[in-house]
Specification:
The complex is a heterodimer of chains A (268) and B (323). Chain A has 2 domains: 221 residues, Rossmann fold; 31 residues. The radius of gyration of chain A is 22 Å and the shape is globular. In chain A, the strands form 3 sheets. Chain A has a 9-stranded mixed sheet with strand order 11-10-9-12-8-1-6-7-13, with helices on both faces. Chain A has a two-stranded antiparallel sheet with strand order 2-5. In chain A, strands 3-4 form a two-stranded antiparallel ribbon. In chain A, 46% of the residues are buried. Chain A is built from 7 helices and 15 strands. With 268 residues, chain A is an alpha/beta fold. Chain B is built from 8 helices and 16 strands. Chain B is an alpha/beta fold and 323 residues long. Chain B is elongated and about 60 Å long. The chains are: A alpha/beta (268), B alpha/beta (323). Chains A and B meet through helix 4, strand 9, strand 10, strand 11 and strand 14 of A and helix 4, strand 5, strand 7, strand 8 and strand 11 of B. Strand 11 of chain A pairs antiparallel with strand 11 of chain B, so a sheet runs across the interface. The complex binds flavin-adenine dinucleotide.
Chain lengths: 268, 323
């Protein structure tokens, strides 16, 4: 099995809201002191792939990213987690490419890297949260797509994809090649690579391509978005004043808390 | 060309999501001066079609054998065909699993642009704009779609329903030339125990986070509290990822978007991604040991204490007050 996992590097999405600012004129988040991390769902995807390889054997995992030069760090971390090979397409143009542009670049890089039985992406990214890369990539590659997968099993030449639904889960039997988008689950919490492996990963080969080397219309990929654009970006201001229940003893405080609850539920 | 097409997958009934979707569609169609067309894919949807026809100008039922139950590839083929024939200006879907899975691909096949998780859709000049949360709920963006049709999946439950019209729209059955695409096939479907009552419809929710510390207290402490309040139970991502409760309980940006009268968050920090799922709860209340936990910034009332001390006592007090 040949697996491709696509990774996106993003601004740490877990920084507290009070430290988060936007540059409204540029319709971008302010970098501030936030670090850059790999999108969690992309890491869930990689973890799912690694576990598949551990069970099924005979599997090669390649990681791919389209991003700023700093995205190399995400790929190095993936190598430290024991992905087999890594490739970076450097984005030297549009800092916030729309999902169609991203899928186009990934599709071209995918073709250049070889043929894959399974192409995995995160369900969405922690920054813009578009949730479209997997679906659009599948369309461009003319492959089927299954979303919200959390584990993958090889069963008699087919892949059994377990995925989450609104009310439970489903298993899909898929003939490779197939594109999947991955969501989180208790079993695909990403492993933490050893510090030594992270250091070692910087000595491993890593393929780098410019947009011009991909054989697509690079200027189009660098230019403005033709799918959608961010017209406005703002931080909504809404805070509620919290009444901390008072009382001299725990008993009094909980009594007050219970009364506030009954006020709400009693009025329903 | 100015029509709006709403797409539904044979939901068993005209629930709040379907009503919100129809309402959003009706208003957008009015703004565009077009018709509201509805497409329903899947078997057993006659009752739903009749309800939708009270709002839409036309309803098309696609319930032939190949489409009886949802299968991603076949269903996408059918929708692409149905929407393609109608050349709408906009295609609206809800934010259930299947709609999210299909929408971007549908946009691609129709030569349009998709955007998801919309909380508002409006026409501005020639363009359609959609308001949505980004950066894990820390910011709000207005997205301008550049291609037609605009394919938008919405937080449908948050949209007001439309008034019924005097005359029902016409209901027709589509006969599509379609073959089952078996490259992927759903071979097993399981409902999570307790998943019958939908979290999205709950009026009171008792929710636990990582601070709960394990699966047992969810059972021994939170569950009896929820029963007392007639509440449903939910959790933060951290509690789901720990395997303490099923993933269907997750509330937030990438979990359920809920709209209860009361959301009681216990040992949950209130990260923006969690709050993104409860922005439409009427009253949020919290129990947390940390007075600076962000959840208090969104709470109407709160108590700074160890939940292990509060919850047993709270059950006693509530039981006494309810008598
Ligand atoms: C892309 C992305 C999507 C995400 N989507 C979601 C989502 O949909 N839903 C979601 O919930 N999260 C989501 N997250 C994760 C989110 O950022 C937080 O990490 C998560 O919500 C934290 O869960 P928590 O509050 O339970 O845990 P913690 O942050 O660990 O908080 C535990 C809290 O419990 C309190 N506590 C501890 N012990 C006690 C006690 N004995 N009594 C009372 N209080 C106590 C602590 O003070 C603390 O506030 C997402 C993250 C990313 C990056």
């Amino acid at each position: 099995m040949n697996i491709l996992v696509c990774l996106k590097q993003i601004l740490d999405p877990e920084i507290p809201a009070r430290d988060f600012r936007v540059v409204a004129a540029k319709r971008e988040a302010e970098r501030g002191s936030a670090s850059l991390v790999t999108n969690i769902f992309c890491e869930n995807a990689l973890e799912t792939a690694l576990q598949f390889r551990e069970r099924a054997g005979g599997t090669k995992i390649t990681v791919l990213s389209y991003g700023q030069p700093s995205a190399e760090d995400s790929l190095r971390k993936a190598l430290a987690m024991k992905a087999d090979a890594a490739a970076l397409v450097v984005n030297d143009g549009n800092t916030n490419p729309d999902p169609l542009t991203v899928a186009r670049v990934l599709a071209a890089a995918n073709a250049k890297l070889g043929t894959f039985d399974l192409i995995m992406v995160g369900r969405e990214a922690g920054d813009w949260g578009a949730g479209q890369t997997g679906g659009l990539l599948a369309e461009m590659l003319e492959l089927p797509c299954v979303s919200f997968v959390d584990s993958i099993e090889s069963v008699g030449g087919k892949l059994h994809l377990k995925r989450q639904t609104d009310t439970g889960w489903e298993t899909l039997a898929a003939e490779p090649p197939v594109v999947v988008t991955v969501t989180n689950d208790e079993h695909n919490v990403p492993r933490i690579p050893k510090v030594r492996d992270v250091m070692m990963s910087y000595r491993q080969p890593l393929t780098q391509w410019t947009l011009d080397e991909l054989g697509i219309n690079a200027d189009e990929a660098r230019a403005g978005n033709t799918y959608y654009d961010v017209a406005e970006l703002a931080i909504p201001q809404k805070e509620t004043r919290c009444e901390f229940v008072s009382g001299d003893t725990l008993d009094e405080k909980v009594e007050a808390f219970a009364r506030r609850i009954i006020e709400v539920t009693g009025a329903m | 060309m100015n029509d709006v097409c709403i797409c539904l997958f044979a939901a068993p009934n005209f629930d709040k999501s379907a009503q919100g979707l129809a309402g959003a569609g009706r208003r957008l169609a009015a703004e565009l001066d077009g018709q509201l067309l509805a497409v329903i894919v899947g078997a057993g949807a006659d009752a739903l079609a009749a309800e939708v026809a009270r709002i839409a100008d036309t309803v098309t039922l696609a319930d032939q054998a190949e489409l009886a139950e949802y299968q991603p590839e076949t269903c996408l083929n059918a929708l692409a065909q149905l929407c393609g024939e109608r050349s709408p200006r906009a295609v609206l879907l809800a934010n259930d699993t299947y709609s999210q899975e299909i929408a971007p691909r549908l946009a691609y096949r129709l030569g349009g642009s998709a955007v998801g998780d919309g909380v508002e859709v409006r026409v501005e000049g020639e363009a359609l704009r959609v308001v949505r949360q980004v950066y894990g709920g820390k910011a709000q963006a207005v997205i301008e779609l550049k291609r037609t049709p605009a394919v938008v999946w919405l937080r449908a439950r948050s949209f007001a329903p439309a008034a019924e019209r005097a005359e029902s729209g016409e209901i027709t059955r589509a006969a599509l030339d379609i073959q089952a695409d078996t490259r992927t096939r759903i071979v097993e479907r399981k409902r999570e125990a307790g998943g019958e009552a939908r979290l999205e419809e709950a009026r009171v929710i008792v929710s636990g986070g990582r601070g709960i510390g394990g699966p047992e207290p969810f059972e021994s402490e939170l569950k009896p509290l929820a029963e007392l309040l007639g509440a449903q139970m939910a959790a933060s991502r951290a509690a789901c990822d720990a395997g303490w409760v099923p993933p269907t309980w997750q509330v937030g940006q990438t979990g359920k978007k809920v709209t209860p009268e009361l959301y009681l968050g216990i040992a949950i920090t209130g990260a923006s991604q969690h709050m993104a799922g409860i922005s439409e709860a009427k009253v949020i209340a919290a129990i947390n040991t940390d007075p600076d936990a962000p959840i208090f910034k969104h709470s109407r009332f709160g108590i700074v204490e160890d939940y292990r001390k509060v919850v047993p006592l709270l059950r006693e007090k509530l039981a006494a007050l309810q008598r």
